Amino acid sequence: MDGAKAYYADLKARVARVGRKPDEQFIFPGIVVYTDETDEEHMRCIARSRSSGRDEATCAP
After folding, report:
1. Which listed residue, of 6, 39, 41, 55, carries a Cα 20 to 30 Å from 48's Cα?
2. Does one domain contain both 35 and 59?
3. What is an example of a GO molecular function annotated in this UniProt entry (predicted)?
């Protein structure tokens, strides 16, 4: 949860730096779940994605 709070604060600060009112900007976080046949298969896909600099979303079928 600390990471999410830090990310939220960072976004609000960036909004302010470009001249927008942070209180007028809304941030709607979400969770996306991807699955593979097995946990091991999915973990291998995530490892490949991270080592190549790709987004984990590419693991989705």
Report:
1. 6
2. yes
3. oxidoreductase activity, acting on paired donors, with incorporation or reduction of molecular oxygen
